[in-house]
Amino acid sequence: MKASKDDKAKTQSKEKAKIRRWILKAVEDVEGDKGATAHHIQKFLDSKEDGISSRPEWKLILKKLLDSGHLMKNGGRYVIHKSKKTSVKSSKGSAASKANKKVTKKQRISVKK
């Protein structure tokens, strides 16, 4: 009995992951920075698997993607949220980068003498 519950949970998890990938792909496929509407996402899901957009779980997955920050809503359209990367020359560095800076300063001093 337990094995069947585990199998059912695994298949549900795989289904959700598949829908999640398809939602992200639907938003990514929109040309330009306009973003995808909910109707566009529904059409994309139905093109992959018939009747999948009639299930309520795709809306829950979409909401989780919004909450997690993978997607953003921009005027009724969904766009992929790209995180801003920090520059390499930030004042906060790792211990290794700070050690390398100290070594290079010591090397510079010894070379000048």
Helix and strand layout, with pairings?
Blueprint (H helix, E strand, L loop, with lengths): L1 H27 L9 H11 L8 H12 L2 E4 L2 E4 L14 H18 L1
Could you explain how this protein is built, in words?
- Residues 1-113 form the ENTH domain.
- The chain has 113 residues and is mostly helical.
- The protein has a domain at 12-80: Arc Repressor Mutant, subunit A.
- The protein has helices spanning 2-28, 38-48, 57-68, 95-112, and strands at 71-74, 77-80.
- Strands 1-2 form a two-stranded antiparallel sheet.
- Helix 1 packs across helix 2 (38-48).
- It starts with a helix and ends with a helix.
Low-confidence stretches: none
Quickly give the structural class.
mainly alpha
- First and last CA, distance: 79 Å
What share of residues are in beta strands? 5-15%
Brief summary of the model shown:
With 113 residues, the chain is mainly alpha-helical. Helices cover 60% and strands 7% of the residues.
